[in-house]
Amino acid sequence: MAKSCKGLAMELVKCLSESDCVKVENRPFRECAKEKSPVISSECVGLRETYFNCKRGQVDMRARIRGNKGY
């Protein structure tokens, strides 16, 4: 994992671990990360989208040359 996305990944895990999906329903992180807004907070949804864009930027050759955008 690239260092530029590592911080986002840690924030996403922290946000999901504090959500009701993981705490109350005892579901795994992967299931909760796929859920929509009613189950997890809008902050977690935003972090998920930002992390996805960061990872996608690593695969895009143009972005790899220029580097990921500072989100």
Automatic annotation (TrEMBL):
Transmembrane spans: none
Statement: the UniProt record of this protein carries the keyword Disulfide bond: yes
Gene Ontology BP term (one): mitochondrial respiratory chain complex IV assembly
Key words, A-Z: Disulfide bond
CC annotations in GO: mitochondrion
InterPro entries: Cyt_c_oxidase_assmbl_Pet191
A Pfam family: Pet191_N
The keyword Disulfide bond belongs to this UniProt entry's keyword annotation: yes
Family: Belongs to the PET191 family.
Protein name according to UniProt: Cytochrome c oxidase assembly factor 5
Species name: Lactuca virosa
